[in-house]
Each structure stands twice: as structure tokens, then as C-alpha cells.
Amino acid sequence: QVAARGNTLPLDYMTNRCRFYNIRDLAEVAGVPAQGVNCHGLFLEGAGWEDGKGEDEGYITESKMKDLHPVMPICNIFAVHIDVMDWNCMYHCPVFSTSLRGATYIFQANIRMDPDDNENRWVLAGAAMLTQDD
Fold first, then answer.
1. pLDDT tens per residue across span 112-122
2. How far apart are CA 26 and CA 38, in angstroms?
3. Rounded Cα distance, 97 and 93, in Å
């Protein structure tokens, strides 16, 4: 609501954008983000995470052996107009508070995919983010 009011845009045409930094340590965050909020403490289930090179954003990848819930990098979540949002190479990832899923659904994040990937691959794999590592 704050972003919509600040930019005099209708709330019905706003969506969230999740941008994952390549850092996991809170000490490396240089203060408050220019827009949105920083979120940490998320875990990925059913997939793995590949950090980006330099300033490039990381992307979802195959899970690694014996790494059931990899820790996600710090995420900047901010609101954008739906016409500005780029859904190319994005996985609509559900975020749950526990691994029980179902009624613990919180919101839908967007996670960058490899350009050759298909979103159906991650849906069938059951890839989701969790707020706690069980």
C-alpha cells in the first residue's frame, strides 16, 4: 500500500518482486534498502540455489545431495506495477511457514530460473520456500 500511495498507483495493479542478493550474512547489508524490505531466514525445499556472479541475481537449480533445506540469500521484497514486472525466467514459488505446507501458506515469491528452464519442472518437484528449517 505504501508504494502504491507514494506513486499514486492503484493497489489492484501492484505485485511483489523478490530480488535475492548474493549475501547471507546480515553484517554485509549496508542499511535500509532504497525500496521495500530485506528478508532473511528463508529456506528452499525441493530444489537448490546457485548464487549469481557479481551483481547478477542467483537462480533456482537442482538440489544438492544431503542438502534438504539450503539457506536462501537475503531477499529484497518490493512492490512494482504489474506492467513493469518482468515474468520471464521466473518461478512463482510458494512460501510456507512450515514444511507441512497447506494451511501454513504465506505468499508467492518470484524466483529467477535458468533461461532454459520451464516453470513446470519446479512445480512438479514441489519446490517451495520455508520460514523455518524443520
1. 998 898 999 99
2. 10
3. 13
